Fold this protein.
Amino acid sequence: MAKDAASTEAVRRAQVLAELAQTNKAPQDDRPPPPEITTVEALREHLWRTHGATVGTDDPLLMVHTLHQVFLGDWERAMNTQRRLLSQAVAASAQSFAEDARRSIEGFKDEVLTDALRQKSMAMNEAAQLADKAQARFRMLLRTLTLLTTLNIGVVLIFSALVLTLVQ
């Protein structure tokens, strides 16, 4: 029975919270902004206008307001400190990321340049080898042509000598 009462109470609380959530879903744009209350006198005046009730200067409600202002000030200072620390951490992370990216780009650039130079060097070596082979073949052709030319000149001289000996 105690479990049923506890579960019924939990269900009832959940319903109340759901109803409160529904009633608090008024559009934010329709509500006027809260007044800027920075002094006790401004708070007393706001309470008079809103509720038609006067509050004495020694009312505990004013102490709650003062404590609330002090706590809000502390909270705001803490948030400003956290905001500053977060900003510094983000700036440091961004700088570190930029430095890492710069190093990676430099390394990649060096790899690409090294690879390009290696390929260019290989191409130049291959071209030099081909040029050496072409030059060797050209020399061989030149020797062959020189030999053939010498043979032709020899044959012409022998033929001319034969023709001259036959003609005489």
Summary: The helical segments are 2-23, 40-51, 60-167.
